[in-house]
Amino acid sequence: MRHLFALALLWPVSAQAGWFSYDSYEDCMLDRMKGQSTMMYQAAQKDCKKRFDVEDEITYLGDQMKRNWEYDHGELTIEIIDNTTDYRPTRGEFSFSEKPCKESKDSDFGQPVAMEINKPNRQMPFMIPVCMKTLKLWGKYK
After folding, report:
1. Per-residue b or e along 74-94, where b marks 16 or more CB atoms closer than 10 Å to that residue's CB
2. How far is residue 32's CA from residue 45's CA, in Å, rounded to a whole number?
3. Each residue's pLDDT tens digit, 41-67
4. Order of strands across the sheet with 55-57?
5. How far apart are CA 60 and CA 85, in angstroms?
6. What's the CA gap between 58 and 140, in Å, rounded?
7. How far apart are CA 44 and CA 69, in angstroms?
8. How far is 122 from 17, CA to CA, in rounded Å?
9. Whole-prediction pTM value?
10. How many beta carbons lie within 10 A of that of residue 3, not counting itself?
11. Alpha helix locations (H) across the chain?
């Protein structure tokens, strides 16, 4: 009997989805929410998005994330500084004006420009930007 018990412990076990890891974000959410109240949804969603490196729109920043940008010889680069959010920004949608920010009205800003964060962008051939407005920002949980 002892030998059977020892053999059972050593027998290879095939891992089913969710036993040791998840195959996808959806599998993770289904497993994490099984039997839970809807109050646990945000915690499960954050954990699963972090595990699967899912990009998400960052909807509220307040003063938790400051952006810096540089325009040099036709190359525009946007970087994130002083980031106290749970996100690592990856890309954004920005609009630029040739006037200083204090003088710029909505009509002074050009068409939205989609850009990756911390990568040079050459989509500004017709203007030299002076003021930047962040329209949307996406990122992944840290």
Report:
1. eebbbebeebebebebbebeb
2. 9
3. 999 999 999 999 999 999 877 788 888
4. 55-57, 131-141, 87-97, 113-116
5. 10
6. 9
7. 34
8. 44
9. 0.72
10. 7
11. 2-10, 25-33, 41-51
